[in-house]
Write a structure and sequence with these properties.
Layout (H helix, E strand, L loop, with lengths): L1 E2 L6 E2 L1 H5 L5 H28 L1 H13 L3
Antiparallel strand pairs: 1-2
């Protein structure tokens, strides 16, 4: 999956690797890929937000222990 300059312009490898697939099939694949990517992004954002204090403490500890 790749994004163009405009985040709405998404194309999957499916379009390139399987030109024989119908536009409807490619569109379904692109929609599912976008959903998976967005769910992963949202989950990562949620975890980092919830654990921000832990992340900052870890980063501080690593910086302090730097030789």
């Amino acid at each position: 999956m790749s994004y163009g300059e405009n985040q709405d312009e998404v194309s999957s490898a499916c379009r390139v690797a399987h030109p024989e697939r119908s536009e409807a099939t490619v569109q379904k694949s692109d929609t599912e890929i976008r959903r998976f990517v967005e769910e992963g992004y949202n989950e990562a954002t949620r975890i980092l937000t919830e654990k921000r204090a832990d992340l900052e403490a870890l980063a501080k500890g690593l910086l302090e222990s730097k030789p």
